[in-house]
Amino acid sequence: MQVGMIARVVGTLGILAVVIGFSGTLAVAQSSLNATPEGVAVDGFDVLAYFADGAPREGLAAYSVRYLDRDWHFATAEHAALFAANPAKYAPQSTSYCSHALSEGYTAEVDVIDGWTIIGGKLYLNWSRDVRDVFLAKQDTRVAKVAQNWPALLAGLADGTTRFYPHSSDASVQISHPQKLP
């Protein structure tokens, strides 16, 4: 009898830990959208720089545009003005989640320094440089899967059924947010 009681308590605690862990992960996924806790999108990087400079560039709060309930920072007033005129043209696809993950049916954080690529005039962000390279190897298929999967994944973020993986969940990944250029 005592062993049965211990098993029920351990089982209940295990279920509780899973529920608490899952809801904590979900809260991160719903609130982050690749934004800092202060609500700055894409870790404060200038998304126009990927197009204009072909490289990541940190933005400045002085050149900020509000879009999708986030503050987007830019390195120059010109970049901020271009973004404000057509944010959908420059914003990362699928609100900054990892494109490779989306093509596989889940969501994950991104590496804004090494995980980016532009395909067909659109910015795609990925978990890391290596994952970006896997995404690029089958880009036509993966871009189509991102478009196909995104509506269900977005709905799943709202109702708690979409899996989300932060960089902090993988000890082998040495990426912390917000990212900074070396």
Instruction: Work out the radius of gyration.
Output: 19 Å
How many separate helices?
A: 7
Major sheet: 2 strands, antiparallel
Work out the number of β strands: 6
Across the major sheet, the strand order is 1-2
| Unreliable segments of 5+ consecutive residues | 1-32
Q: List the secondary-structure elements in sequence, H or E.
A: HHEEHHHEEEHHE
Estimate what percentage of residues fall within beta strands.
5-15%
What do you see in this structure?
The chain folds into two domains: 1-32 and 92-167, no CATH class; 35-87, no CATH class. The relative contact order is 0.14. It has helices spanning 2-32, 47-52, 77-85, 87-90, 99-104, 129-137, 139-159; strands at residues 60-67, 70-74, 107-108, 116-119, 122-125, 164-165. Helices cover 47% and strands 14% of the residues. Helix 6 (129-137) packs across helix 7 (139-159). By secondary structure, it is α+β, with helices and mostly antiparallel strands. The strands form three sheets. Strands 1-2 form a two-stranded antiparallel ribbon. The chain has a two-stranded parallel ribbon with strand order 3-6. The chain has a two-stranded antiparallel ribbon with strand order 4-5. It contains seven helices and six strands. Mean pLDDT is 82; it is low at 1-32. The protein starts with a helix and ends in a 17-residue tail after the last strand. A hairpin with a 2-residue loop joins strand 4 and strand 5 (122-125).
Give structural attributes.
2 domains; single chain; globular; two-stranded antiparallel ribbon; 6 strands; two-stranded parallel ribbon; alpha+beta; 47% helix; 182 residues; disordered N terminus
